[in-house]
Amino acid sequence: MKIIAVGRNYIDHAKELNNPVPDKPVIFMKPDTALLKDNKDFYYPEFSNDVHYEVELVFRICNEGKHVSPKFAHKYVDAIGLGIDFTARDIQSMHKEKGLPWELAKSFDHSAVISPLYPKEEFPDLQNIAFSLKKNDEIVQSGNTKDMIFDIDSLIVFISKYITLRKGDLIYTGTPVGVGPIAIGDQFEGFIQDNSVFSCQIK
Question: Considering only Cβ atoms within 10 Å of each terminal Cβ, which end of the chain, N or C, has fewer?
């Protein structure tokens, strides 16, 4: 499987980082070694001094698809979860200034927290799913899929023009406003609607 992630998919978050609001999806990838499952601890990497949290809804692909048409895009998702895209912001900023790729800032080991995945049928409207992130019992991010610049069907159509989607692939769909730094000792808890779906302590 592969992890396909979307950047700048919420207007307020793009503005938060002084980035232009995109007219096409901004896509990057993480390897499968980035996954952090089962509420395991995240160990602060020694190569960064400014790691940030970014909570994101995650959609699992259930069919192989290339050049997926809009009318069939909804058939390519079977489950939904929540994750954190940990980002080494200092490394990302340095690479952006030089026009270099972001991979070292985004793709390091355990940089993609993932909750259990829940059947799509549990969500009556994929364009109205609320989610949030607590840091030390305080809500720091809250979002809703209705506020995405590019919805999940549009992302499937766009990505599949370039990259063949395969069963088990995960799409991290972007983060709302409110990203910020993590510190050793922090405790994070993620929610879909009002349901706690993951926890992660920073060590």
Answer: C
> Using the 8-state DSSP alphabet, how is residue 59 labeled?
E
DSSP one-letter code for 84:
E
Q: How many residues are listed for the chain in this entry? A: 203
Asked if pLDDT for residue 133 goes beyond 70, the answer is yes
Instruction: Give which of 83, 79, 86 is closest to 37, Cα–Cα.
Output: 83
Say if strands 138-144 and 130-135 run parallel, antiparallel, or are unpaired.
Answer: antiparallel
Question: From CA 53, how far away is CA 135, in angstroms rounded?
Answer: 10
| Mean pLDDT, rounded, of the chain | 95
pTM of this prediction? 0.95
What percentage of the chain has pLDDT greater than the value 70?
98
pLDDT score of 117 more than 80: yes
Cα gap 83→133, rounded to integer Å: 10
Say if residues 68 and 165 touch (Cβ distance below 8 Å): yes
